[in-house]
Amino acid sequence: MESMSVPTAGPLVDTFGRVASDLRVSVTDRCNLRCTYCMPAEGLPWMAKPEMLDDDEMVRLIRLFVALGIDQVRFTGGEPLLRRSLIDVVRRVGELPNRPRMALTTNGIGLDRLAQPLADAGLDRINVSLDTVSSQRFIELTRRDRFADVERGLKAAADAGLTPVKVNAVAMPGEDPSDLLAWCLDRGYELRFIEQMPLDAQHSWDRSTMMSRQDLLDALGARFRLSPVEQRGSAPAERFYVNGGPATVGVIASVTAPFCGACDRVRLTADGQVRNCLFARDENDLRGPMRAGASDEELADLIRLNMWGKAPGHGIGTPNFQQPDRPMSAIGG
Ligand code: SAM
Ligand code: SF4
Predict the structure, then answer these.
(1) pTM for the full model?
(2) Which residues does [4Fe-4S] cluster 2 bind (predicted)?
(3) What's the CA-to-centroid distance between 200 and ligand 2, angstroms?
(4) Is 151's pLDDT higher than 50?
(5) Atom of ligand 2 nearest to the CA of 77
(6) How do beta strands 265-268 and 273-275 pair?
(7) Closest ligand to 197 CA?
(8) CATH class of the 3-314 domain in this structure
(9) What is the Cα–Cα distance from 158 to 254, expressed in whole angstroms?
(10) 192 pLDDT above the threshold of 90
């Protein structure tokens, strides 16, 4: 890097030369599940409506990010399907110049109704989060009896052509991951496991009880033949052919084999803060300046400033690691 001052033009870079191309937008912090690794049984104090970006503000900021080189936008939350205007936001982002690819991460509840309208609005891809295929275990993990809704949502996503439908699972101890893989293979869903991270509001994460990449591979390998897929690029998932392919399974080892050096992500929270990392301790407020009349250039400068401060890695496991103040559900997973 020639100069160490914040760039005033060009793509969104940090001081380590990484370039952001993938924007995660949290459209709400509210949720209708209470996954134990994410939030407490009683839920969280939700953001007040006036604190949240309205549709015009959200679309304006996404337009700025796209002008700064973002080519993929993923809507998340909280549970993004709880934002009533989601379909409108997707449609409007799809109409932007240099239209980004658009993806959604959802728990799948309500997707039976919304998959087709989302596809019609221009959504390109979908990830549905599901950690178990036992409806009893689903209740224990999410504290809600909604397994059948998720099952219907997944089917509706496939019927709407949002294929390949991807399933994201947090690897949970006590769960045989090969049951979920068998279930997804039967239905043509592409499964990716992720290691549990210290992002829960209750701060109860414990590395010693976490199911690691190696635990996962051992358990899956006992039932399926796995062989590595080459060409990982900047994608966080390490992929394996199952029984020779073409079906694959992915493992995202965020904790035991972090991929921060190749990170291309930046995040926008539902209350208009830009964050350069899930684990960032700082964020930059875009909502306040925007409501005070900031120009596009001024907002773009704030986004660049935030990216410039991106740390080399999340530091989980290092002595100075501190969990971020916001839980995953308020950052946007
Ligand atoms: N509610 C939506 C959902 O569950 O897909 C979107 C938001 S959720 C925070 C996004 C993803 O983060 C989900 O796949 C969820 O399983 C994952 N997640 C939540 N807490 C996590 C944690 N502590 N470690 C790893 N992944 C987590
Ligand atoms: Fe809700 Fe998603 Fe968190 Fe589960 S992981 S409580 S579905 S935000």
Answers:
(1) 0.95
(2) 260, 263, 277
(3) 10
(4) yes
(5) 8
(6) antiparallel
(7) 1
(8) alpha beta
(9) 28
(10) yes
**Residue 211 structure tokens:** 């199911």
Condensed to tens digits (0 to 9), the pLDDT of residues 105-137 reads 999 999 999 999 999 999 999 999 999 999 999
Q: Given the CA of residue 78, which atom of ligand 2 is nearest to it?
A: 8
Tens of pLDDT, residues 4-50:
788 888 889 999 999 999 999 999 999 999 999 999 999 999 999 99
Q: What residues contact 230, with CB distance under 8 A and at least 6 apart? A: none
The H or E element containing residue 182 is helix 177-187
* CB contact at 8 A, 212 and 231: no
What's the CA gap between 147 and 77, in Å, rounded? 19
Interval between CA 5 and ligand 1 midpoint (Å): 35
- Pairwise CA distance, residues 226 & 309, whole Å: 39
Average pLDDT over residues 211-240: 89
Q: Which residues contact 227 (CB under 8 A, 6 or more apart)?
A: 240, 241, 244, 245
Ligand nearest to the CA of 332: 1
Give residue limits of the domains in the chain: 3-314
Q: What is the DSSP letter of 146?
A: -
| 189 annotated ligand binder | no
